[in-house]
Write a structure and sequence with these properties.
The chain is α+β, with helices and mostly antiparallel strands. The protein has 11 helices and 12 strands. Strands 1-2-3-4-5 form a 5-stranded antiparallel sheet. Strands 6-7-8-11-12 form a 5-stranded mixed sheet. Strands 9-10 form a two-stranded antiparallel ribbon. Helix 3 runs antiparallel to helix 5, helix 6 runs antiparallel to helix 7 and helix 6 runs antiparallel to helix 11. The longest helix is centred in the middle third of the chain and has 25 residues. The protein is elongated and about 85 Å long. The model has no long low-confidence stretch (mean pLDDT 80).
């Protein structure tokens, strides 16, 4: 860079490229030069200059050289880029096309956009119109066909599924915090949302009585055909933990629940051959998760969340086919899994 270029005003450039697959670079400085150099460059890719197959816009800020005039382009202070559809979003935002707060879903299908525009005419109650639209999707062949052709169909389905899971977690958290929630209320919610225990489960068995003596709360079917027993207890257990000789240990409710689950597993082992023959279920590899208590309902003085977690980790480390988890841990795991995009929370603590 010459001293004349360094002192000049805003620069604009168009540079063709000799590299295969790269057509040209269009750039523009964004501020008059001073202690930093800010620019934006649009890169065009493909073989046809009139119809590029790809685009990338790049923003960068470069510091001035400390010992010389000019800028240190080899060491930019900040740099980020947008590609293809992301560029369109930025352009439309700058043009004021996203005027209202909310969430916008892009579709690359004109048919889908047309059908949605017809169904969602402005009215007094936009939410009611949207609800009516979603309820009518199954019987609307035009809309189903348009959605199916769109590459965004999977994205839309994912958003709907994520919202359903978020609502289910909110309800589970409400039930767990309420002092009088029954085991049956937990059971109904968990049966409809087995994903909270992990993405490896393909459903819930239609029969809860796999043996003559016992009725299981939520028997989940693993992807390999094995059974995972979920035993649900109430969340409001004041003496879930207690101090014993300078250490926190689990209370009697936990011991009783574990014994109950162990008896279930013993019965399944005893009748494994008959269950496999009649119900086509593999129960010799069955294991159990007990969901019991909530840290907010514990009345033990001085108990912290870390104390409770450690006590459960120590307790679980000595169990084989049974695992204990509290409702607050289950909810936290499921929320973390959703945030990270994982299909379920698992049953670890």
């Amino acid at each position: 860079m010459s001293i004349e270029e360094y002192k000049a005003g805003l620069g604009r450039w168009v540079r063709n490229s000799a590299r295969p697959g790269i057509l040209r670079h269009d750039g523009m400085e964004l501020k008059t030069r001073g202690k930093s150099f800010k620019s934006v460059t649009m890169h065009y890719f493909g073989k046809d200059p009139e119809n590029p197959s790809g685009r990338k816009i790049e923003f960068q800020e470069v510091p001035a050289k400390e010992m010389d005039f000019g800028y240190d382009f080899d060491n930019p202070t900040k740099k980020f880029s947008l590609a293809d559809d992301e560029i369109d979003v930025l352009r439309k935002f700058m043009n004021g096309m996203f005027a209202d707060e909310g969430y916008y879903v892009r579709t690359d299908s004109k048919d889908l956009a047309k059908v949605l525009a017809e169904r969602l005419q402005p009215g007094a109650d936009g939410e009611a119109a949207l609800a009516e639209l979603l309820e009518s999707i199954g019987g609307d062949e035009d809309l189903v066909r348009a959605v199916a052709k769109s590459s965004q169909a999977g994205h839309l389905a994912g958003l709907i599924d994520q919202e359903r899971r978020r609502s289910a977690l909110e309800e589970l958290e409400r039930l767990a915090r309420a002092p009088r929630t029954s085991e049956g209320e937990f059971q109904k919610l968990i049966q409809d949302n087995p994903w909270v225990f992990g993405g490896r489960y393909v459903g819930v068995t239609q029969r809860r009585s796999l043996t003559v003596l016992d009725q299981l709360d939520v028997p989940l079917i693993n992807t390999d055909g094995s059974i995972h027993i979920v035993e649900l207890k109430t969340a409001c257990i004041p003496r879930l933990f207690k101090m014993h000789r300078n250490h926190w240990i689990v209370g009697n409710d936990v011991h009783e629940a574990v014994s109950q689950a162990e008896n279930y597993l013993h019965q399944l082992d005893t009748h494994a051959a008959n269950i496999k023959m009649t119900l086509k279920l593999e129960v010799q590899r069955a294991f159990a998760t007990i969901v019991v208590g909530h840290i907010e309902h514990c009345s033990a003085e001085g108990l912290t969340e870390e104390d409770a977690s450690l006590a459960l980790r120590i307790y679980n480390s000595h169990l084989s086919r049974v695992r204990v988890i509290t409702y607050d841990q289950l909810i936290t795991n499921a929320k973390n899994a959703m945030t990270l995009g994982i299909s379920g929370a698992g049953d670890g603590v």
